[in-house]
Amino acid sequence: MAKHDFRSTCSIARTLELVGDKWTLLVVRDLMWYGKQTFQALQDSAEHVPSNILSERLKRLAEWGLMQRRVYQQRPVRYSYHLTDEGRSLEPVLLQIMGWGHKHLGGGRYDPKSGASIAVSDTGSSKPIRSQVSRDCVSPDSRTERAIPSRSDLGPRSGKASGRTVRRLHAR
């Protein structure tokens, strides 16, 4: 990992210095779940990261050892981008943020393993959906509705069970 003079000794503050901006975790998401490996593929994401920002985020991820770049073309030199094990270890963070966003901001949840989304209603029922929120979180190549994770990595349950339940749907 790159040497850095952090502003705080707090682990949360330190982590946010690295991945707490608007774009970095979206780049990690695309590398991890959508297999986007080229600059152009990353720039073509639904969020349309500006090229100067994408370039800076890729440089930062590489400096911190979260991502590696590899030459895939010599003339002109072009690189492919690949998460390291340390970069892939951010997956639970993405799942936690996604789970919180769906619980508090509405919509369905996306399962990166199956490529599926489901709605979670206040009554606790689960059904496949294609809501605006879930479309914003899925690959444009995804044409079918599948299931989402209901594992504990979407968030620890504290004490009493909530009224909102999620069950795993298998679409394999």
Concise summary:
The protein is α+β, with helices and mostly antiparallel strands and 172 residues long. The chain has helices spanning 11-19, 24-33, 39-43, 51-63, 85-88, 91-105, 132-137, and strands at residues 67-73, 78-83, 108-111, 116-120, 126-128. 36% of the residues lie in helices and 15% in strands.
Description:
The chain has 172 residues and is an alpha+beta fold. The protein folds into two domains: 11-88, Orthogonal Bundle (Arc Repressor Mutant, subunit A); 91-154, no CATH class. It is built from seven helices and five strands. The protein has a three-stranded antiparallel β-sheet with strand order 3-4-5. Strands 1-2 form a two-stranded antiparallel sheet. Strand 3 and strand 4 (116-120) form a beta hairpin. The longest helix has 15 residues, at 91-105. It is globular. The protein starts with 10 loop residues before the first helix and ends in a 35-residue tail after the last helix.
